[in-house]
Specification:
This protein has helices at 34-48, 67-82, 90-96, 129-140, 237-245, 265-277, 293-301, 330-344; strands at residues 2-6, 10-15, 120-126, 145-153, 180-184, 193-202, 223-230, 309-316, 321-325. The chain is an alpha+beta fold and 345 residues long. It is globular and about 55 Å long. The model is unreliable at 56-63, 158-174, 260-267 and 281-289 (pLDDT under 50).
């Protein structure tokens, strides 16, 4: 975990993708309890001192058991350790490092707002109840400015909407992504507003001399890096607005974009089941016509849930927090580097 800002009352962190903020009833199987905490500490000691015995005092007592029986017991014990499902939440990690957290949120101590498991980046937590209540108020009155960056396809599908859509809920149909715009469509039947800006494109060089994106260029890119500012705080807002508002689902998003076609069948079935359960799921398995190979490879090889959405900056003026930024994860940087190299070929 990377601490971006900390004082006596709050802490702002960069949450890694794949980490849940706190455990609810659906994720309690991996919650860090005393047994798992002891296992992790022993594992850390084993890694620091590989030549020393890592067994318990009882394991070191000389008995009349033969060596093969002892080996079988050790093997079984090790197998049981490896099978332990350790899913450390952000709350678990901070409490384990003795960072004080407020108790107003009974589900997750210190948690004022959330980031999805697959989303990385800025998140603020309260250290005491008084500050927690004030932060909740700031979020409620829209006194918090949140920016995200997302990696999406540059082109949208022809059937994702057009100028004639009712209430202008879709971005006007173009050959490519516009440089900026607003997205005003409901999320889970609640009003939601976002603004986006095109930061960079990948797959070819289509910048004008002044640095602006030439959307009329015949050299069309395959992927785009966009900045999204949310004016409301709905669950999955950026993910829904990219998928439904822009017609460009975030790459590797398990709910609102298609899985790579050569992904494991078990994972494909799991994601299809999730799509059926989601009211806002708007794309099918063909929703992305041409996914860059480096993203396909990442999706197939990923060991944990992660997708290309990053909470890049956070501002809470009332608390003197101005534009705290979280750097992009390494796996993002590697993918962007790969996309740039593909564009130069």
């Amino acid at each position: 975990l990377q601490i971006l800002y900390e004082d006596a009352s709050i802490v702002v962190l960069s949450k890694p993708s794949g980490m849940v903020c706190f455990h609810k009833h659906k994720t309690t199987a991996g919650k860090l309890n005393s047994e798992k905490r002891k296992f992790l500490r022993q594992l850390q000691l084993d890694q620091e001192n590989p030549n020393q015995s890592n067994g318990s005092p009882k394991d070191n007592i000389d008995t009349n058991e033969n060596s093969s029986t002892k080996k079988k017991k050790r093997s079984k014990k090790q197998k049981n350790k490896e099978s332990i499902n350790v899913d450390i939440s952000l709350e678990d990690a901070l409490l384990d490092y003795k960072i004080p957290l407020s108790t107003l949120n009974h589900e997750g101590r210190g948690i004022v707002h959330r980031l999805d498991r697959g989303t990385s980046g800025c998140i603020v937590l309260a250290k005491n109840d008084d500050v927690h209540a004030k932060l909740v108020t700031e979020f409620f009155i829209r006194g918090v400015k949140k920016n995200y960056v997302a990696l999406v396809p540059f082109h949208r599908r022809d059937d994702q909407g057009s100028d004639g859509d009712d209430n202008n809920t879709r971005i006007a149909m173009t050959d490519g992504l516009k440089e900026s715009g607003g997205i005003d469509i409901p999320v889970h039947n609640r009003p939601a507003l976002s603004f986006y800006e095109l930061l960079e494109t990948f797959g070819c060089d289509n910048r004008n001399n002044d640095g602006t994106v030439d959307t009329q260029s015949s050299n069309t890119p395959t992927a785009a890096l966009i900045k999204v500012e949310t004016r409301t705080g709905r669950k999955h807002q950026v993910r829904v607005h990219c998928a439904k508002g822009l017609g460009r689902p975030i790459y590797l998003d398990p709910l609102y974009s298609s899985m790579p076609q050569n992904a494991p069948k078990k994972e494909q079935k799991r994601q299809k089941k999730k799509k059926k359960e989601s009211d806002d799921s708007s794309t099918d398995d063909d929703s992305i016509n041409a996914v860059p190979q480096c993203i396909l490879d990442l999706g197939n090889n990923a060991q944990q849930q992660q997708f290309f959405l990053h909470a890049s900056s956070l501002s809470i003026p009332q608390f003197g927090i101005m534009n705290i930024e979280a750097p992009l994860p390494t796996w993002w940087e590697n993918t962007i580097k790969c996309l740039k190299e593909d564009g130069r070929e």
